[in-house]
Amino acid sequence: MIAAAPTNALAATAAAQRRALTEPALVRWALIAAAVGFLALFLLVPLALVFAEALANGAAAYVSAIVEPEALAALKLTLLAAAIAVPANTIFGLCAGWAIAKFRFRGRSLLTTLVDLPFAVSPVIAGLVFVLLAGRQGLLGPWLAEHDVQIIFAVPGIVLASIFVSFPFVAREVIPIMEATGTQEEEAARVLGAGGWQTFVRVTLPGIKWGVVYGVILSTARVLGEFGAVSVVSGRIRGVTNTLPLHVEILYNEYRFQASFAVASILTALALVTLVLKTIAERRK
After folding, report:
1. Window from 7-16, 77-86, 272-281 with minimum mean pLDDT
2. Is 220 in contact with 86 (CB distance < 8 Å)?
């Protein structure tokens, strides 16, 4: 009986704490309703309107808009930029994550800050920086012209802008995981005779694979939807340097609203696929 008293007191205290931390049902449902209403108003309704406007003139007009040569060229360029930028950012993210999480060195804080730089810099400013560096009148412009290399108003500029705006995502996903797991497993593998590559593939990578997948998905979504930086460096040449977001804006400015929404529906569909993959990866992390 003497021992049961403190136990009952602890249980009562825990129950009181749970009650103190549990909101009334009315407050809980009000918050849920507010969140759902906000999402419906600003996300679901616009998404539904995109597809409704895209199909406003019928399926034939929809198909005609998305199979136009300029629309197909914009789609190919968007996917090409993603196919180059995302693998490059994955390799960079793994290298940066490994260096920041596993080692202590002078300049580590600076490297961490540089990884986050695209989050702080406006994409338009980033595009202007590339123009100032590699444009015809830029710092490297004369040398690039002398060697017949064109970056600005060409595909390389679009790829560079895509890499810049999306490179933090993989690094930012793997760094917390690597820091949480520490270095004991890698050190044990090295003691047992494993090489650096074997240690990474068989010890490190299995622990961070879903973080890598999550970062790749976010990076891909960022590249597909990028507008500001790509708009500055592309020159908006129809069928050559227009990505899908730029092509949508051009169609809209020309009052071809149905065609604009039809092309926008491709981006919307890609975003929804990305959202599903992101959810799956998030559950596996």
Report:
1. 7-16
2. yes
On whether the CB atoms of residues 237 and 153 are closer than 8 A, the answer is yes
For 225-254, what is each residue's pLDDT tens digit? 899 999 999 888 888 899 999 999 999 999
Band (9; pLDDT cuts 50, 70, 90): low
Residue 181 · residue 234 · CB < 8 Å: no
Find tokens 């694979």 and name the residue: 209
CA distance 175 to 211: 9
Residues belonging to the chain: 285
Mean pLDDT across 5-9: 62
The span from the CA of 138 to the CA of 160, in Å, is 16
Taking each helix axis from N to C end, the angle separating 155-166 and 123-134, rounded to the nearest 10 degrees, works out to 140
Report the pLDDT value the prediction gives residue 76, as an integer from 0 to 100.
Answer: 94
The span from the CA of 237 to the CA of 214, in Å, is 33
Rounded CA separation 157/131 (Å): 9
In the numeric block, which tokens belong to residue 165?
């705006």
User: Are the beta carbons of 213 and 174 closer than 8 angstroms?
Assistant: no
Residue 130, H or E segment: helix 123-134
| CA 244/CA 267 separation, integer angstroms | 7
Amino acid at 280: I
Cα torsion 251, 253, 255, 260: sign: positive
Position 207: which residue type?
G
Q: Which of 145, 176, 172, 154 is nearest to 233 (CA)?
A: 154
